[in-house]
TrEMBL record:
Family, similarity comment: Belongs to the RnpA family.
Entry EC number(s): 3.1.26.5
Gene designation per UniProt: rnpA
Quaternary structure and interacting proteins, as annotated: Consists of a catalytic RNA component (M1 or rnpB) and a protein subunit.
Known role: RNaseP catalyzes the removal of the 5'-leader sequence from pre-tRNA to produce the mature 5'-terminus. It can also cleave other RNA substrates such as 4.5S RNA. The protein component plays an auxiliary but essential role in vivo by binding to the 5'-leader sequence and broadening the substrate specificity of the ribozyme.
Protein name (record): Ribonuclease P protein component
Key word tRNA processing present: yes
Length: 123
């Protein structure tokens, strides 16, 4: 699997973001939460975005750091998702704690969260 995060995979369309918040379902693995919604026909199998709350990290530097870490863990582990998708999805990844977890901890939680998501959609 190509371990890149191209522009086409970035969640940018307001229509898809609104769909996530209105009809999306979620799975969690503390402190991460993944909100997802199936899309109608789409060019790419997965559109992915990340978010870190201003409530937990007041400084933009801190929020940007965790967003970079979340994007990187997605990039390295996205083959877990792509190999199991039967239709296109829009997804958003949330970091939901004040704790400053290490990269290794976030990477482990990401893998567990992606496995939980795959189990959920294959039921």
């Amino acid at each position: 699997m190509n371990a890149t995060y191209p522009k086409a995979e970035k969640l940018k369309k307001q229509k898809h973001i609104d769909l996530l918040f209105s009809e999306g379902k979620s799975v969690s693995k503390y402190p991460l939460r993944l909100v997802y919604a199936p899309l109608e026909e789409n060019e790419v199998p997965l559109e992915f975005g990340v978010s870190v709350s201003k409530r937990y990290f007041k400084k933009a530097v801190d929020r940007n750091y965790f967003k970079r870490v979340l994007r990187e863990t997605y990039r390295l582990n996205k083959d877990l998702l792509h190999s199991n998708l039967k239709q296109p999805y829009a997804m958003m990844f949330f970091y939901q704690t004040k704790e400053r977890l290490s990269y290794a901890e976030i990477d482990l939680k990401t893998k567990l969260l992606f496995e939980k998501f795959v189990e959920t959609i294959n039921k």
